[in-house]
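Review box. Two proteins, two foldings.
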Amino acid sequence: MNAPDKEYLALVREKMPKSKHLTTVFRAFWTGGVICCIGEALNVAYSSVPGDFSSDDVAALTTITLILMTAILTGFGIYDKIGAYAGGGSIVPITGFANSVVSSAIEHKREGVVLGLCSNMFQVAGPVIVFGISSSVVVGIIVLIFKGAFA
C-alpha cells in the first residue's frame, strides 16, 4: 500500500463513528424479552380466568391482546419510540407485524378509507403474509411426503 492509501485509511478510521453493536444487541434483547414476558403474563392471566378456555383460546386471546396493545401504542406514536430504541427487538414478536400494519394505515389515512387505509394497510405486511402462507404450504407438502415415506 502506498502512503496516500495509508493516510486515507487512517483518516477514515478517525472519522468513522464507533460501532455500538453491543449496546444495540443488548437493547434489542431486553426489549424483545420484556415484550415476550408481557405476552407470557397475559397467557398466565387468561389461563387463570374461570371458564372453559382451552389452551388454543388462551393463546388466541394473548395474541389478540398483544396486537391490540401494539395498535394503540402505534396510534399514539409510542411504539415508534420503542422501535427506535430497541431496533430488531421490537419487530421480532407479533407486535412488530401489528405495528407495520397500523403504521401503513396511519400514513395513508388522508387518502380516504378505501384508497388510503384499505389499499395501503398491508403494503409493508403484505409480502410477509404471502411469504408466510407460501412457505407454510411448501413445508406442509414436504411433511406430508416424508410422513407417508416413514409411515
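Next protein.
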Amino acid sequence: MLKRSGLKAKKNRIQRRFTNISGDFFAAMGLLIVIAALSSLFIYAYNVLISRPYFEIKEISVRGLKELTEKDVLASAEIKPAQNLLAINTDAVIRRVAANQWVKNVYVGRELPNKLVLEVQERSPLVLVKQGSDFYLMDGEGFVFKKLGKSDEVDLPVLTGFNAQDKTKSPLFLSTLNLLKTISGSSQYAYLGTISEIHIDDVFGLSLISDKGLYLKLGMGSFESKLKKLTLVLADLEQRGMKNGYLCIDLSDESKVTVQRKNAPGRIEQGNKGKQYLI
C-alpha cells in the first residue's frame, strides 16, 4: 500500500513539473510572438513614415558660419533633394561635414516635419606656422589645419621656433597660445600694438615683436604679470623722453627690467649689444 502511494506521489510530481515547463514554454513563445509582431509593426510604421512626402526635407538651416559658406557645407553634407527627414543618417552627415579643414565640431538636428539644421563650429586661426616653404593656420589648441593660399588674406602673427611636425606640445608652447588668446581677446593689451612675430626657445623662453617697435623677452613664465609690469616701464620711458625708436625690453628676470633702444627695425638677436637702460 505504501509503495503504491509513493509511486502515485512521484507520478503527480512529474505531471506538475511537466505542466510548469509547458506553461513556461508557451508563455515564452507568446512573448516572442508579441515582440515579433511589435517589431513588424514598428518596421512597417517606419517604412510608411519615411515614404511619406510630408517628411521630405524642404528647408536646410546652416548656422555658425564665418569662413565657410552655406554652399561649402551643403556640398560636403551630400544631402539629396527631397530626401526624407527621418531617413537622414546624421552620423554620416557629421563625418562628411567634419572632413572640411575649417570645421571643428558639427551638430545635425531635425525640426519636424521638414527642416534639417546643421550647427557648425569653425576653427579660429590664432597664428601662422611655417612648414617647409609654406605657411599654415593654427588654432588656439595648437591644431594646424590649413595651408595658406595666395588668395588668403590674414593678419596673424607668425610663430617661430616651433616644429609643427612634433605632436608633443610643450608647456611653454601651450602657455604661449594661452597668452596670445588673452592678448587678442582683451583691449587692455592695446598698448602692445599688433603682434607680428612670436618666438619660442627652449633656453631663453618666449619673445615677441609688435608693430609698435617693441621686442619683448618674456622668458619662461608669468607672462601676464610681466606685461603688467611693462605698462609701468613704458610710462617711465615716456616721462624720460626715451619712448621712441625700437625698444628691446627684457622682462625675463622678474627682479629687473633691461631696456635697449634701437634706431633701426628688424629682428633683434640674442646677445646684441646696444645702449642699455636699467629700470
